[in-house]
Amino acid sequence: QMADPFLYHTGERSQYGCLGHEVQIEHIKAYVCTPSFFTDKAVIVVHDIFGWLFPDIRYIVDLIAGHGYITICPDFFKGTDPWKTTDHWADFADWMKHHDPMKVDKEADVVLKYLKEQCGAKKIGIVGFSWGGMAVHHLMLKNPQLTAGVSLYGRIIRDSEERYNLLNPTFFIFGEKDHTISYDQITLLEEKLQQYCKVAYEIKVYPGQVHGFAQLKPEDMKPDDKPYIEEARKDMMDWIKMFI
Q: Which family does it belong to (predicted)?
């Protein structure tokens, strides 16, 4: 029996009226939000297991666009079902086999091409949450077109020493009370990055925060968590702004 990795209940969420629009790019649908002025800077947002339609992730897209970036959240599940709150955690490992965060390269390339050719983007960053945080870690090792990355509570996969030779600056955000990622894993990540990583990186752990803390909308935040959520989001944006 696998523990439910989300200590917040995703069913009890306020509605969200999105500011962006949906587009079709080759075989992928995507949610896009653009600032009101021209910019050649863009950010790709990688959703968590709840997919690209989830209101929290669209809120994040709009938030980043508000800082002056063309922001896009593609459907990395390519039209297949995201994980649903009614699904059973016993089936999660099987579901993950068909939704591998290490197999996002083709979709990332399609979106990068769209941002460069259709939107005039010259510098492109990426942020990802949970499942998306794992995808960001993977892409920052594989795709030199991504100028900077922020991985938020992506489980740390240790399949080889190559896992730590990042191509461009990457910031790792974790919650102290995330029971899907142990503190030992974070310590090991830090040690390995010190050893192998030749670019700027940072790891930060936010006190008292559980898995998924950084993507809550203001009305869904608990008062004790709000300062840490806001700090994590500011840190995320500061990292993006430093490099993009």
A: Belongs to the dienelactone hydrolase family.
Alpha-carbon gap, residue 186 to 78, rounded angstroms: 31
pLDDT, residue 157, reads 72
Question: What are the tokens at 57?
Answer: 């992730």
CA dist 53 and 57 (Å) reads 8
Choose the weakest-confidence range: 7-16, 139-148, 166-175.
7-16
> 16-25 long-range contacts, Cβ below 8 Å, gap at least 24?
16/55, 16/56, 16/58, 16/59, 16/217, 18/55, 18/58, 18/62, 19/62, 19/65, 20/58, 20/61, 20/62, 20/65, 20/71, 25/74, 25/110, 25/111, 25/114
- Per-residue pLDDT at 2 exceeds 50: no
How far does CA 1 lie from the centroid of its chain?
27
Question: In what helix (H) or strand (E) does residue 189 lie, and over which residues does it extend?
Answer: helix 183-196
What residue type is assigned to position 23 of the chain?
A: V
User: Cβ distance 136 to 127 under 8 Å?
Assistant: yes
At how many degrees (to 10) do helices 55-65 and 226-243 cross? 50
**Distance of alpha carbon 228 from alpha carbon 238, whole angstroms:** 15
Query: For residues 172 and 235, what is the distance between their CA atoms, to the nearest angstrom?
Result: 10
Q: What is the pTM of this model?
A: 0.94
